[in-house]
Write a structure and sequence with these properties.
Order of helices and strands: HHHHEEHHEEEEEHE
Helix content: 40-55%
Largest sheet: 6 strands, antiparallel
Structural class: alpha+beta
Shape: globular
Number of helices: 7
């Protein structure tokens, strides 16, 4: 519908006046909203809080002992197996030696990686390589060694202690094992050389005593 020129002029004037009011109102609104401020004070305040927090804490170096990748792997692996904190796994040579033999089948009077292992032969080899101590290769021979102090209290057990078991009625000391940590032991069963729970009835019924290296003068 075509409007007369004078009516068109009136509509244009009304529209211009309305837009001007909205624009002025918008500027006033923007000036009054609470978030209309410079970000610089906020940034400075946030940085101040961060610096205050950072000053109370230090960066922790998880590898303070400067371990190589293999040692870090051993620490993580055996902390998980024994359910202890990684910081409790510190004897890397001991666990690295054990790690090579885990899963080796039991074979009497044998010591060959992945082929067969007799636990008394393994203990003799481990103590020779890791602790520099020589034992006989029989459970009874290790039990009678003058280099170790025998005891029976389980609460005194420490990493590396030798465990003595009686499986055979004809032999009071039939087999040996190694105490690790948190009631985990290294022993030979029908499943081979592996890590087991010392609380298992199988071991508790057969446990005779434990032995620890005497301090050297």
């Amino acid at each position: 519908m075509n409007l007369p020129h004078w009516q068109s002029f009136i509509w244009i004037a009304i529209l211009f006046f309305s837009v001007s009011l909205i624009s002025c109102g918008s500027k006033k609104y923007i000036q009054e909203i609470p978030y209309n401020f410079s970000s610089e004070p906020y940034t400075n305040a946030a940085n101040g809080v961060k610096e205050n927090v950072d000053s109370k804490y230090s960066v922790i170096d998880d590898n303070v002992d400067k371990l190589n990748d293999e040692e870090l792997h051993i620490k993580e692996k055996y902390s998980i197996i024994m359910e202890v904190m990684p910081k409790e796994v510190t004897h890397y040579k001991f666990y690295a030696y054990i790690d090579r033999w885990i899963g080796t089948p039991y074979k009497k009077q044998t010591l060959e990686e992945k082929v067969g292992v007799d636990c008394s032969y393994f203990v003799q080899s481990l103590y020779s390589d890791v602790y520099g101590e020589t034992f006989q290769k029989t459970p009874d021979g290790i039990f009678r060694s003058k280099s170790i102090q025998l005891f029976t209290g389980r609460t005194f057990l420490k990493e590396g202690d030798i465990l003595f078991f009686r499986y055979d009625k004809m032999h009071p000391i039939s087999d040996v094992g190694i105490y690790l940590n948190n009631d985990r032991i290294l022993a030979c069963t029908a499943n081979g050389l592996n890590i087991y729970n010392f609380n298992d009835e199988y071991f508790q019924l057969r446990f005779v005593a434990a032995g620890r290296l005497k301090p050297k003068n």
